[in-house]
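Reopening this one. Same input as before:
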Amino acid sequence: MQRRTLNKNSLGTDEDFHGNNVAATCPHCSKVFLSSGYKDTKGRACPSCGKSLLYCAKNGSEAWIEW
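Same output, byte for byte:
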């Protein structure tokens, strides 16, 4: 499984990081989706294809996507 860490200080045009919420693009289907550090404690699967997981730490210190 591949993993990419999202850097708060260097976000892509299709990424966003706000508090303990993060948005990123699924590497498989290109759907932009959200994940919450509080609600999605085990990551959130892409709602379109389910082939990637987006994670955000509860305190908003880090976020990453796995596929």
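So the earlier flakiness isn't reproducible anymore. For the record, The mean pLDDT is 96.
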